[in-house]
Amino acid sequence: MKKIKNLYIVLIGLAAGVMTSCESKLDQSPISSLGSNGFYQNEADFIKALSGVYNGLNAYPINHFELSEVRSDNIYTPGTAGVRDYNLINNFNTNLATAGIMNSTWNGLYNNIMRANTIVDKLSADVVADDNTRTRIEGETKFLRALYYFDLVRFYGKVPLFDRPVTPLEALEIPRSPVTDVYDLIIADLQFAIANLPDEYSSATDLGRATSHAARGLLARVYMTRSGTQLHPDGPVLGTNEWSQALTLLDQIINSGQFDLVDSYADIFAYDNENNEEIVFDIQFLSGGQGVGGEYVQYHYPEAFARTNGIPFAGGTFPDAPKTVSADLMASYPSEDVRDDFSVWINYDDGNGNITQDRFIKKYLDLDNLGVDRFDFELNFPVIRYADILLMKAEALSKSGGSQSAIDAIVNEIRNRAGITAPVANVTYDQIMEERRREFIGEGLRWHDLVRSGMAIDVMLDWIAEEDAANKISTDITSDDLIYAVPINQLDVKEGLYEQNPGY
Q1: pTM above 0.90, yes or no
Q2: pLDDT tens digit string along 217-227?
Q3: Cα–Cα distance between 337 and 343 in angstroms, integer?
Q4: SS in 3 state form for 120-184?
Q5: CATH of region 2-290+383-493, choose from 3.10.350.10, 1.25.40.390, 3.40.50.300, 3.40.47.10
C-alpha cells in the first residue's frame, strides 16, 4: 500500500489547491482544505481553482534555466565538487535519475496537470451557466495543461498520459505513452484554446491570463519542435515537417497588429514596464513580502554578489559552483550590440575586496527594485515574446524554402533593435539560431533550440572542447542526452511500469 500512496503523491498530486510560497498576481487563495467533490459549487470556485493551475507556472523560469540554459553552451558551471544538481546537468552526468530537480520537475508538472484535469472534469453548465465564461475557463485550463505536457515531452520524452482525474490504483496501470500520443493531446488542447480564448483582455485584473495569441504562439512552437531533425526515437522532435502550420499561426499573431518590438531591449525587462507590447505570454510575479514574489532571479547571481550589494537574505549560487556565462557566447556579440552589456554582469567584489572575473546573467535583476528577501522579486518572466514570434517565423521560412528577403528583414529588425546598424543578407539557418541565442540569453530557450535544430550534439561537443577548462563535462554525448532521466522514485513505484530512458 505504501507504493500506491507514493504514486498518488507523485503522479496525481497532493490536492488541487496546495500552493507554493511563490504566488502570481492572479488570485492564489488556497483550496486544499476542500475536497474536489465538494469544492466546485459556483463560478468563483472554478476561477480560484484555475488560479491554482496558473500558480504552477512559478517553477517554469527555474526549470527552464536549470534544464535548458544550464544544459546548453550558454552557461558553464562544472562546479568545484560537481555535486550540485545543476553541475550534474551541465556536466552531462548519467546519474541524473537521483537528482532532486528531476523529481521536483516531474512531480510539479503532474501536480499541475492533475489540477487542470480536475477543473475540466468538474466544469459544467450546472455550476457555470454562462457559455462564454465556461469555455474561457476551459480554454485557459487546456492552454496550461498543454504547456505542462509540452514541458514533460521536451524534458523526458515519453511520459504517462492523464487526460482526466484517475485513482492511485488506475495510475498503477498507466504506462508511459508514445510522444505522438502526448502531442495529440497538446495540439487538441491548444486548438481549443485558440478557438475559445479572447485575443486580449480589457480588465487589468486579467493580466497574465492566456489568450488565443498565446495559444497560437505555443502551438507554433510545438509544430516547430515536432518538425525538427529527429535524433532520438522517443524524444520531442519527430521530423514531421509542419513548418507551414507554424507559419500560419505566427502570421496570425503578426498580422493582428497587437504586438511590437519594444524600442529598447532593456525596457522589455524593466520593472516599471511589465506587460508591454512585446509580451505575448508571461508569468506574473509581484513583490510584497511573505514570499509572494519570484524566486527565479536568485538562480542567476552569486551569493557573494548578493551579500555585497545588499540583497536581503542573499541566496544566489554557491561559491563552489557559479553559473558563468560562457566565453563563447560573450564573444559572439558584435561590439555595438547592447544585449550583452544589459544581460550580463562582469566582475564583482566578492566581499573580501577581491574583484572576481566571473560573469552571470543579470537581465532580471534591478538593485533598485528589491523585495524583502531573495524570494521576493516582482519582475514577470517572459514565456513567449514578439521577438520570438518573429525569429520563429524566420526559422520556419528558412526550413521551408520561404522568402529569403523576409528572413533577412526579420533578422535585421532584431539586430537593429540591439544597436547593430550594419544589415546582413542571405541569412542562413545557423545564423538565425545564433541570433536567437544572443536575443534570448537567460530565457530558457537555448537547449530546446539546439534539440529542435538537430545541432545539439555537434554544437555541445565543439563547445566543450573549447570551454571546459575544468575538464568535467562528459564528451561521450549521444542522442540519449537529448532528454533527461526518469526520476528514480518513479521507477520504484511499481516495478516494470516505466523503463528508464537509455543512457541513464
Answers
A1: yes
A2: 999 999 999 99
A3: 11
A4: HHHCCCCCCCCHHHHHHHHHHHHHHHHHHHHHHHHHHCCEECCCCCCCHHHHCCCCEECHHHHHH
A5: 1.25.40.390
